[in-house]
Amino acid sequence: MPPVQAAIEGTREIGPAVTATTISLIAVFLPLAFMSGIVGQFMKSFGWTMAFAIAVSLIVSFTLTPSLSARWLGGGRKALRPAVDSLGHEEARRLPPSRRSMTEGGSTTRWITGTAGSSSTLCGAGGWSSS
After folding, report:
1. Mind listing the pLDDT tens digit for each residue in 61-80?
2. What is the pLDDT of residues 91-117, one digit of tens each?
3. What is the DSSP code string of 47-99?
4. Taking the mean position of all CA atoms in its chain, how far away is CA 95?
């Protein structure tokens, strides 16, 4: 099956679920925009922002995401592929030396970022529960 046809069929398959989720999220956040009182003044912009962002997300999920996935993940020479595969092998060797340094430390950077994020999350959770 051609990539474009696969993207169209995939979008049709998940369309009702994405639409239902989007409508329920908008139904949750939009009433915040119509609250009255002092709390309503604070929640008005939040409700509108969330409802608008969720609506834009629906549009992107039906238009941009399928077209880009068909373009990037499609087979053949016309498909756009990342310069480095998941392990950073083979295709990275074809990069010029100036770009090679950016890809060689990828897995080390991921471990450092993951460790720092987990540590800060655990420390924050520990501080939250003790107070």
Report:
1. 998 888 888 887 765 555 45
2. 555 656 555 555 555 556 677 777 888
3. HHHHHHHHHHHHHHHHTHHHHHHHHHH--STTS---SS-TTS-GGGGGS-HHH
4. 27
Return the DSSP state at 88: S
Q: How many CB atoms lie within 10 A of CB 19?
A: 13
**Helix 37-62 to helix 3-29 angle, to the nearest 10 degrees?**
170
Domain boundaries defined on the chain: 1-81
- Cα diameter, the chain: 62
* Residue 96 DSSP class: -
Amino acid at 19: T
